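Notes from the 1:1 (GR / supervisor)

We went over the backlog. Supervisor wanted to see one worked example end to end before approving the batch request, so GR pasted a single chain during the call. The sequence is below; no edits were made to it. Supervisor asked that the structure be written out right there so they could see what the output format looks like.
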Amino acid sequence: MAKNVAIVGVTGAVGQEFINILEQRDFPVKSIRMLASARSLGKTVKFNGKDYPVEELTENCFAGVDIALFSAGASRSKQFASAAVNAGAVVVDNSSAFRMDPTVPLVVPEVNPEAIKQHCGIIANPNCSTIIANVPIWPLHKANPIKRMVVSTYQAVSGAGQAGMTELFDQTRDVLAGRPAVCKKFKYQIAFNLFSHDSTIGPNGYNEEEMKMVKETHKIFNCPDIAITCTCIRVPVPRCHCESINLEFKDSITPDEVRALLEHAPGVSLIDDRTNNRFPMPLDAADHDDVYVGRIRQDESLPDRKGINLWVSGDQIRKGAALNAVQIAERL
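Structure output shown during the call:
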């Protein structure tokens, strides 16, 4: 049954990816509204060969909308999501606004699609790094419960939106031309550099990105007992996050068993060629739906073959944001 769809934040990087994915997956759209801030008035967005005007986001623009895909930041989600719900829409929100609200399902369709049925008008999309980690880890956890998880992320600048990508490109040109790098979006130079993720550091010394991965994974897996620690780093890559993931399991598990579990897992592709030292890269994952997994090896520091190391790469604009939301909308 065709749906009336609204895209909130349509001019942003994730908003544009919403458009691409709705087209590519032939989502049953009856009508579509392109919503953004007043700054974007006068712009048009093409969908299925037709130009649509960008409308200003207000509390009165959701009449008749069935599904509203939000990606305009937490403050706007908090301001406008209730208006969409009151107008009869189901909101799939890509911000952090509602993720830890106990009344709002936090969903990765490959992991906990049953949670969608519990919604009261809003469904939260997890953080991009959380999604990319959870898709390959879940089938392993189902087969052999995970006791501890250590994650180090290598996060592309597009996680900070179009402004992050623009800054990387501008700084790269300037540095190569012998000019000083100008910092606007990021506090520190990103070209030819990397730094701790640009989110607020909490009193425990962890930044918000790291704590999102901990808390969201506990909620999505419905397993608060997993010990999780993270270090999140911003790297000078335009698109696709990579993650080094170390897992400790309840029982013994071998790399071959992990490969067998992941070979047919939904949303996962393997690139694990030891002979040619060929493992997942951002160039593999860019513009693709799957999370790519490789460097599957035993953690020899743990006894009884209970530890495994993985390396993953996933497109954080696509699977880490827009695709995950559209998959939720498809199930709705």
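Supervisor's comment: Helices lie at 13-24, 74-86, 128-143, 162-176, 208-221, 255-263, 282-285, 318-331.
Batch request approved.
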